[in-house]
Design goal:
Strand order of the largest sheet: 3-2-1-4-5
Strand content: 25-35%
Structural class: alpha/beta
Number of helices: 7
CATH topology of the largest domain: Nucleotidyltransferase, domain 5
Length: about 240
């Protein structure tokens, strides 16, 4: 039996779950993009308390590695690594897009594919396609997801679409009969358990010393130079 603590902070939804093997024993989440660093430690303490364990009793920490929010991922990974360092526990990294398969698995079969979408907030979207065995059909990428791109995906399949802010990217699919849009499935620690347990059983861990979030694209800082200049040097 293994106890795996799961942490998901890749989007506005901050969530923590504690699983015994693949069975979730406790979970808690809150949708507030500005409070991850504050509430994450509280959530971890809460799920440990619900399970009547001590933090030392966990066997591994699983963290959603991205892609997703740069800040959110840094917070989640930093906390996960801190716990692993302190307790000498292994660290498991789960691709955020791939983890969404867990949230829709009961709706999938060999004729169904999942298109995972996560809005990047930069006029693009992180996306990937998986089958019901978690296998990658189209690898993760960042692009404008539109009808032109959708027509390059595998044909002859039914599609489920899940993720984060997907309404922004799925309006063109309204008339597609083979597409089901699932607004209620989004990145959550609950979805990490299946993949995390498999990796735990296979000793598929990442280095606590060197692991970094999977950003997929380079960070692009917003340019505030004009705004700052207008404040410092107002036009007369």
């Amino acid at each position: 039996m293994s106890w795996i603590l799961a942490i998901e902070t890749s989007t506005d939804n901050c969530s923590v779950a504690l699983a015994k093997n693949t069975e979730c024993v406790a979970s808690i989440s809150e949708n507030n993009r500005n409070s991850h660093s504050t509430i994450l430690p509280l959530f971890i303490n809460e799920v440990i308390k619900i399970a009547n364990l001590n933090i030392e009793d966990i066997d591994a920490v699983a963290v959603s590695q991205g892609p997703g929010s740069f800040t959110g991922l840094r917070i989640g990974v930093s906390v996960a690594k801190g716990i692993c360092f302190a307790l000498y526990k292994p660290l498991i990294a789960i691709n955020t897009l791939q983890s969404l398969v867990s949230g829709v698995k009961s709706k999938m079969n060999e004729e169904t594919l999942l298109l995972s979408l996560i809005d990047s907030g930069a006029q693009e979207c992180y996306y990937a396609i998986y089958n019901d065995c978690y296998s990658e059909v189209v690898p993760p990428d960042s692009a404008i997801v539109d009808e032109k791109l959708f027509k390059t995906f595998p044909t002859g399949k039914n599609y489920l679409i899940a993720g984060y802010r997907i309404h922004k990217w799925t309006k063109f699919l309204a008339d597609y009969k083979n597409v089901s849009i699932l607004e209620d499935v989004y990145p959550d620690a609950l979805h990490l358990s299946d993949l995390a347990f498999t990796k735990f059983e296979n000793n598929d861990f990442v280095s606590v010393n060197t692991f970094e979030p999977y950003y997929l694209r380079d960070f692009k800082a917003r340019d505030f130079s004009i705004k700052i200049n207008n404040i410092l040097f107002p036009k007369k």
